[in-house]
Amino acid sequence: xxxxLKALYEVVLNRKKEPSExxxxxxxxxxxxxxxxxxxxxxxxxxxxxxxxxxNEETVYEICDLIYHLIILMAQKGIALEEVTRELExxxxxxxxxxxxxxxxxxx
Length: 108
What we know:
The structure is a single chain. This protein is an all-alpha fold. It has one domain (2-84): MazG-like (Helix Hairpins, Orthogonal Bundle), CATH 1.10.287. Helix content is 72%, strand content 0%. Helix 1 (2-17) crosses helix 4 and helix 3 packs antiparallel against helix 4. The radius of gyration is 18 Å and the shape is extended.
């Protein structure tokens, strides 16, 4: 999986540096951060809907769209894929870090 993400990240970086006619990736960069963030929000909502509809095939499709748009954001903000993988590795070593659930009195 990491090879696939790395390859996708490299393609995205290339599209950012070298515009390609008709490239959707390049279009997002040209439109800027607000458009990229809007697309992330849309894809996140679509992922939630697909999961709530209990449609795994559609959920996988939407997760891929979300990951793609997150990679666009990373490239836009200059965040290297290695930064994210390092953080994920760091988090994978944590255990017993469940936060206490705050109980609220709903009667007050």
